[in-house]
Amino acid sequence: MPGRGALCLGLLLHVLLGCGSSRQPGACPAPCECSEPAKTVKCVSKNLTAVPPDLPPYVRTLFLTGNRLARLPAGAFPARRLPDLSALNLSGNHLRGGSPLEELALRGALRDHGVLLSLATMLQSGALRNLSRLELLDLGNSSLVGLRNVSFQGQGQLQSLNLSDSALGVLRNGTLAQFRGLPALRRVGLGRDAWVCDCTVEDLVAWLKESDQAEGKEALTCAYPDKTLGKALLRINGSDLNCSVPVDLPSQLQTSYVFLGIVLALIGAIFLLVLYLNRKGIKKWMHNIRDACRDHMEGYHYRYEINADPSSEVIAP
C-alpha cells in the first residue's frame, strides 16, 4: 500500500536523522579528524577558541595546531577521560599568561623542530607560569642540542625537568644559572645524554659538583672525544680538557687589541722622535732632492725648446 510505504520511509528517515544528530560517546568532534587505529586526533587550523570537550578517550596524540586558543582551562585534558593522552601539539596558537596547567608530559612528542620552538616561545612568554612539572623525554633525532634560547622566567613553581635521552651535548652558564634561580626545582634528569667533554663542559661540571638538582649525576659520562669516552663528568678536570682556545675569547681578543694599540703608538712615537732629531739632515736631503728635480726638469725644458726652434732644422742639399 502506497500510504504504508511512505509512512515506513518517513519513520526510517526519522530514525537515521535522529541517530546522526545525537553524538555517541567517544565519537570524533565535528571540526576534527580522528583515527582510532592510530590513536590520533587532528584539529588543525579550525579557528578553535577552546579545546573540544568531547575528545574520544582512545586519543594518544592530539594536534591542536594553528587555532586561536588563548587559555588552557583547568580540566581541559582530564586524565580520567583521556587516560592515554601522551603527546600534545599546541603550536601556532595564541596562548598567554595565566594558564592553570600544572603538569606537562611530552614524552617522545618533541621530535619536530617547530614544535620545540613553540614550546620555547610558550616558556618565554610565561604562558605556562603555573607549570609545576615539565618532561621532555625521548628526544632522539631532534634538534634539541642546547637550551640557550629557552627562558624559564616565571616558572617559579617548576619542580621537575627531565632532559634525559635527548641530543644535549652541553649546558652553559646561562641555562645553569636559570636552574639555580628556580626555588622549587628539585630534579633535573640528564641521563643517557651524549655529553661533549671539551672546554664547554666546565660550566656543567662545576654545577654538578655544587648542586643537588641533577638526578643520578654520578652516572653521567662523556661521549666525546674518544680520550674521555666513558669518563664520569664529576671526575673531569682541566688537564683532561687541554683547552687550546681560551673559553673567554671576547675578553682575550679585547686584551690583544689593547696591547696592539700600545705597540703601534710606541712605534709612532719613536718614528716622530727620529724625525725630530734628524730634522736638519732631513731638510738638507729634501733640498738636494728638490734641486736635482729642478735641474732635471730644466734639462727637459731646454731640449724641448731646441727641438721646437725652426731655425735649428737641417735642410738637405
TrEMBL record:
GO terms for cellular component: plasma membrane. GO terms for biological process: negative regulation of canonical Wnt signaling pathway. It comes from the Eukaryota. Residues 1-22 form the signal peptide. Keywords: Leucine-rich repeat, Membrane, Repeat, Signal, Transmembrane, Transmembrane helix. The chain crosses the membrane at residues 257-277. PROSITE patterns: LRR, PROKAR_LIPOPROTEIN. SUPFAM superfamilies: L domain-like. Residues 27-61 form the LRRNT domain. The keyword Transmembrane helix applies. Residues 195-244 form the LRRCT domain. PANTHER family: LP06937P (PTHR24364), TROPHOBLAST GLYCOPROTEIN (PTHR24364:SF17). This is Trophoblast glycoprotein.
